Amino acid sequence: MKNEKMAALRGDRTQKEMANEIGIPVSTYAMIEAGHRFPRRELQIKLARFFKLTVDELFFDQAGVEEKE
Questions:
Q1: Which end of the chain is more exposed for a tag (fewer CB within 10 A), N or C?
Q2: Distances (CA, A) of 48 to 2, 39
Protein backbone atom coordinates (compact mmCIF):
# COMPACT_ATOMS: atom_id res chain seq x y z
CA MET A 1 0.00 0.00 0.00
CA LYS A 2 1.35 3.41 -0.98
CA ASN A 3 2.47 5.56 1.93
CA GLU A 4 0.22 8.54 1.19
CA LYS A 5 1.49 10.37 4.24
CA MET A 6 5.10 10.34 3.02
CA ALA A 7 3.96 11.47 -0.43
CA ALA A 8 1.97 14.35 1.07
CA LEU A 9 4.79 15.38 3.41
CA ARG A 10 7.24 15.41 0.51
CA GLY A 11 5.25 18.23 -1.07
CA ASP A 12 6.95 19.74 -4.11
CA ARG A 13 10.30 18.10 -3.44
CA THR A 14 11.42 15.19 -5.58
CA GLN A 15 12.06 11.75 -4.19
CA LYS A 16 15.73 12.31 -5.02
CA GLU A 17 15.83 15.51 -2.96
CA MET A 18 14.16 13.73 -0.05
CA ALA A 19 16.50 10.76 -0.20
CA ASN A 20 19.53 13.05 -0.27
CA GLU A 21 18.26 15.06 2.73
CA ILE A 22 17.58 11.90 4.72
CA GLY A 23 20.77 10.19 3.60
CA ILE A 24 19.35 7.07 1.97
CA PRO A 25 19.39 5.75 -1.61
CA VAL A 26 16.73 7.20 -3.92
CA SER A 27 15.53 3.70 -4.80
CA THR A 28 14.97 2.92 -1.12
CA TYR A 29 12.97 6.09 -0.55
CA ALA A 30 10.90 5.53 -3.69
CA MET A 31 10.13 1.91 -2.83
CA ILE A 32 9.04 2.83 0.72
CA GLU A 33 6.81 5.66 -0.50
CA ALA A 34 5.29 3.43 -3.20
CA GLY A 35 4.61 0.68 -0.67
CA HIS A 36 6.89 -1.88 -2.32
CA ARG A 37 9.19 -2.04 0.67
CA PHE A 38 8.70 -1.65 4.41
CA PRO A 39 11.77 -0.19 6.16
CA ARG A 40 13.61 -1.88 8.99
CA ARG A 41 13.06 -0.37 12.44
CA GLU A 42 16.18 1.81 12.34
CA LEU A 43 15.07 3.46 9.09
CA GLN A 44 11.47 3.82 10.33
CA ILE A 45 12.81 5.87 13.24
CA LYS A 46 15.08 7.95 10.99
CA LEU A 47 12.21 8.77 8.63
CA ALA A 48 9.79 9.54 11.46
CA ARG A 49 12.29 11.92 13.07
CA PHE A 50 12.90 13.62 9.75
CA PHE A 51 9.17 14.25 9.30
CA LYS A 52 8.74 15.09 13.02
CA LEU A 53 6.22 12.29 13.51
CA THR A 54 6.10 9.07 15.47
CA VAL A 55 6.74 5.79 13.68
CA ASP A 56 3.08 4.89 14.24
CA GLU A 57 1.88 8.15 12.69
CA LEU A 58 4.10 7.76 9.65
CA PHE A 59 3.68 4.07 8.91
CA PHE A 60 0.58 2.76 10.63
CA ASP A 61 -1.93 5.63 10.75
CA GLN A 62 -2.73 6.40 7.13
CA ALA A 63 -6.08 8.00 7.95
CA GLY A 64 -6.33 11.75 7.71
CA VAL A 65 -3.33 12.32 5.48
CA GLU A 66 -2.49 16.00 5.53
CA GLU A 67 0.43 18.05 4.29
CA LYS A 68 2.65 19.10 7.17
CA GLU A 69 4.82 22.20 7.09
A1: C
A2: 16, 11
